[in-house]
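Course assignment 3, question 2. Fill in each field.
Student: A.L.
Task: Predict the tertiary structure for the chain below.
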Amino acid sequence: MKHVAFALALAASSLPGAAMAAELSSGPVVAPGSAVLTVSAEGRTARKPDLALFTAGVTTSGRTAGEALAANSAQMAKVIAALKRAGIADRDVQTSNLSLNPVYADMSRQPVSPLEQQVPQVIGYQVTNQVSVRQRDLEQFGKVIDTLVASGANQVNGPSFQVDDTEAALDDARNDAMKRARERANLYARAAGLKVLRILTIAEAGGYAPPMPVMYARAAMADAGAPAPVAAGEVALQANVTVTFELGQ
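Answer field:
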């Protein structure tokens, strides 16, 4: 058995050329005299958003943790009921934050001697409950915000406008990215007195970045009479590709 293993090892070591050829053949092979060009390009497209993401919630305070939590639960139930009345489906409402924190007295205003240690004094508790909401009917978004404020929501943040189904839009951005990559490769090839022979590799990266959300914290909206004005605009989608071309005569 030792003689067989030694013979196999000797045979493998005697074929460095074959091993090197196998290693080199793992990537694209270009013809002798050809050049390799790598180009990165970004493709973009724009879509009218059909989805708005925002958060809504209630912050309440109480002398005890139980008192603050009970007040918050009662108020939050009204907020969720208002969302349902506004036509928001259960699947589009999800709890995103529930916190209970003590409230401390302001010790900086209480005179103490330098030798006394200031011990924080709990004077109450604060509870915050927030839900993430997906609004699919953008024409009703302003009315939904007003309804939430009227129901007792004192924290409304958003919206972040998005496209619900991004794949079709991203395909347009990908086509645009490939078109730009080809045009740039042709430009370099002509400048070098060559032409593009073929594509060797394609790598993709990127996605779309929706605009930053607009912050709403206006309790007076419920009494304003008119729905809160909202402009959805457009959502820019982008795709990035890195393409390697073979250039030759």
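Instructor remarks: The mean pLDDT is 81. Residues 167-191 form the longest helix (25 residues).
Grade: pending
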